[in-house]
Write a structure and sequence with these properties.
Structural class: alpha/beta
Number of helices: 9
CATH superfamily of the largest domain: HUPs
Strand content: 25-35%
Radius of gyration: 22 Å
Number of domains: 2
CATH class of the largest domain: Alpha Beta
Distance between the termini: 29 Å
Shape: elongated
Length: 303
């Protein structure tokens, strides 16, 4: 997938089919919009184009980082992603001018796919009706995707954020259509876990929503290969001094590579237990062994 970050470098593509939205988290509702654009572009021999915005126009905390979002969009078969920097200057562009200057003159959109409730333009005055009104003038077609509901609740990034923060991973996973996961960079830690015989990769997440503190059975994706693992999230590393910062460490099974500075993705399968303090190293080591056993057992049941 080609990614364009500078709107001045946008150009016309062969028969562009545009899917437009923030797509934060690329949940099940977003996937329908994006997949529909991909299908239409392939049917007409065109180019599927996803337009997304960063940072979030509503200034909400991001469910996933921009890089993670783009990876998820690419996995759906989109040909080109355009990342529009949502700054003060851009926020002043009217809905009419956005359609004329960007969607029509720069991209040459033939079809535009959006969610039923999508808003855009200055003061969010643009809506589905705006697209339909201008489609008659410029000759593109607008396709609106209805809001998808699960258990009578509309799927939304805001709801998924709330579910992840309170630890309801199963419900969040059902709305995402995939495992709750974070993308992050491996940094050097204090090597304490290594001394206990359980080396960990310390992770700095990329603007991702993090589940509550605790121990989790996880799957780790590194350079396209998936490994089992057990992940610690917390402020209190063992019986050491309590930290103000959230620490994320993952022990990857059957993995001994040095990967400092590299990226990996952690998919959360199931919480094992809450974090707690230990009276000594022996009791901590014994608990880690139990956690590893529990994680392997959980992962064996979740193929």
């Amino acid at each position: 997938m080609r990614v364009i970050y500078d709107i001045n470098r946008i150009k016309k593509f062969p028969n562009p089919v545009v899917a437009m939205g923030v797509f934060d988290g690329v949940h099940r509702g977003h996937k329908v919009i994006l997949a529909s654009a991909v299908r239409k572009s392939r049917a007409i021999g065109g180019t599927s184009v996803a337009i997304t915005f960063w940072p979030h126009p509503q200034k909400e905390g991001s469910l996933s980082s921009l890089k993670h979002r783009l990876e998820l969009i690419a996995s759906l078969g989109i040909d080109v992603a355009i990342v529009i920097s949502f700054n003060r200057r851009f926020s002043r562009i009217t809905a009419a001018n956005f359609i004329k200057k960007f969607l029509v003159e720069k991209i040459g959109a033939k079809y535009i796919y959006v969610g039923q409730n999508f808003r855009f333009g200055r003061n969010a005055r643009g809506s589905l009706d705006t697209f339909k009104r201008f489609s008659a003038i410029y000759g593109f077609k607008t396709k609106a995707i209805n809001v998808i509901k699960v258990a009578d609740r509309p799927i939304s990034s805001t709801l998924i954020r709330t579910l992840i923060k309170k630890g309801d991973l199963l419900q969040a996973e059902s709305l995402l259509g995939r495992a709750v996961g974070i993308l992050g960079t491996v940094i050097k830690g204090n090597l304490f876990a290594r001394k206990l015989g359980f080396p960990t990769a310390n992770i700095t997440p990329h603007h991702e929503v993090i589940p509550p503190c605790g121990i989790y059975a996880v799957r780790v994706v590194f350079k396209g290969k998936t490994y089992g693992g057990v992940c610690y999230i917390g402020r209190q590393p063992s019986f050491l001094t309590r930290s103000k910062k959230i620490h994320i460490e993952v022990h990857i099974f059957a993995f001994r590579k040095k990967i400092y500075g590299q990226e990996l993705k952690i998919d959360f399968v199931q919480k094992i237990r809450n974090e707690r303090r230990f009276k000594d190293i022996a009791s901590l080591t014994q608990q880690i062994k139990k956690d590893v056993f529990s994680a392997k057992s959980i992962l064996s049941r979740h193929k």
